[in-house]
Amino acid sequence: MADKYISEAVIRRLPRYYRKLEELQAAGVERISSQELSREMGLNASQIRRDFNCFGGFGQQGYGYSVEKLRLELQHILNLDNTYQCVVVGAGNIGHALLAYNEFQKKGFYMKAIFDVNPEIIGIEMNGFTVRSMFEFDEFVKNNDINVGIICTPEDTAQQLCDKLAELKISAVWNFAPVELNGPAWMKIENVNLSDSLYILAYKTGEGETVE
Amino acid sequence: MADKYISEAVIRRLPRYYRKLEELQAAGVERISSQELSREMGLNASQIRRDFNCFGGFGQQGYGYSVEKLRLELQHILNLDNTYQCVVVGAGNIGHALLAYNEFQKKGFYMKAIFDVNPEIIGIEMNGFTVRSMFEFDEFVKNNDINVGIICTPEDTAQQLCDKLAELKISAVWNFAPVELNGPAWMKIENVNLSDSLYILAYKTGEGETVE
DNA sequence: TAGATTGTTAATCGATTAACAATC
DNA sequence: TAGATTGTTAATCGATTAACAATC
To answer: A146 - beta bridge partners?
Structure first.
């Protein structure tokens, strides 16, 4: 049967649960009730139980949840027991930083190459990688089982790149360009819009001030 | 009177409106109705009108909205007609990238300095800045009207840094460390959790697949 | 004026929270 | 068994959408 529908609100809480459970396990905590977890995370205990029950009954009445078991379940739900082969496109500041950020490799997201269109930087060494030309892109993606594309190009070329990724059947796109991308339904796009985030911070800076 | 309560859902849409209006204005569009905007953005027209009306009546019956006027209103609502003096703490990959990313300066977010605790990188040149020691931090913040702190440290020191920022009365924090920070109520914290974002992408990668 | 489109109230939908029976 | 806590149904709350009177 097909997966039942899980709301975006639930999905966005999953990584937080996962992180908290990693933390608890590292601290040697073996079991936890939804109520304790609710206190630790500032969420409602009903909500927590309901969220987990979207995916199965991971707890035990009268006991709570096994931290280790629940962590593993979440890991599985988040598909973190897979590995991912990623390419970064755009060797500017952000692209460079993501390429070098080791935490991702630890979680199973392997950076395999970085590409750019600028002849001035193609060929230079970047964090143990050589910046490749986009002329090599198709070939590289096909030969290296790439399944994640990371868009770090300026906004005006991002859609074009997205189309290229679709053509190459890359199903996961992590987009850092500040534009809404359109891709086929099977393509999953996750946006990290740094400008938007900064704008929201600016907005909140003025919040709570008295007006008039 | 105090500002009326604006829901987080509305706030998170404001930057998108703003970006779209910039785009429309750049394209020479002078006026737009909520219906046209709804088609362009994939939102409901009622929602758009309702969102704007949280802040005032910016439209005109029978006409729609003036793109320029609305853009300016949004700019004001988002506090983007202010300027911001920022310090980056943590001179790793992310800190370095943010320091160098010119788009932010263009929007009025000025990077004034970068700090680190690692003696090996203190003093080195980074994008026209010298990496400063945290021993200079308090002094620098006080003397330079710093009002935004950008946290790019590892997660285990992030809370400590947040406390320091609170002590120095910095009211806006842009947090890139993958932890939930606790600060005083007047401190506005915006989180950019790259791991969480990547986990959500991984989750969605497996979505829509048939199970059992 | 007639037509168009806003601003706003009313209806709907979905997400959160409360309550409690099931059960370990 | 008695106590605790889940899984799940029912109640509430808030956000989205529809409808329409106000008005340019």
So the answer is: none
Question: What are the Cα distances from residue A98, in Å, to A86, A90, A165, B61?
Answer: 11, 11, 19, 48
Whether A53 contacts A103, CB under 8 Å: no
Is the model's pTM score more than 0.85?
A: yes
> CA-to-CA distance for A54 and A74, rounded, in angstroms?
12
Among the listed residues A78, A82, A179, the one whose alpha carbon sits nearest the alpha carbon of residue B204 = A78
- CA dist., res. B146 & res. B171, Å (int): 9
Residue B38 has pLDDT above 70, yes or no: yes
Tokens of B5: 């309560």
B79 inside 8 A of chain A by CB: yes
Cβ of B175 near strand C (under 7 Å)? The reply is no
Do the beta carbons of residue B51 and residue B10 sit within 8 Å? yes
Angle of helix A67-77 versus helix A8-26 axis, rounded to 10: 140
- Is the Cβ atom of A43 within 7 Å of strand C at any atom? yes
Question: Quick one: average pLDDT of A29-42?
Answer: 98
CA dihedral of residues B112, B118, A129, A172 (deg, nearest 10):
-70
Give the C-alpha separation, A59 to A63, whole Å: 8
**Residue A93 and residue B94: Cβ atoms within 8 Å?**
no
- B127-182 per-position pLDDT tens digit: 999 999 999 999 999 999 999 999 999 999 999 999 999 999 999 999 999 999 99
Q: In angstroms, rounded to a whole number, what is the distance separating the alpha carbons of residues A177 and A193?
A: 7
In what order do the strands lie in the sheet containing A132-133? Answer: A132-133, A109-116, A84-89, A148-151, A172-175, A188-191
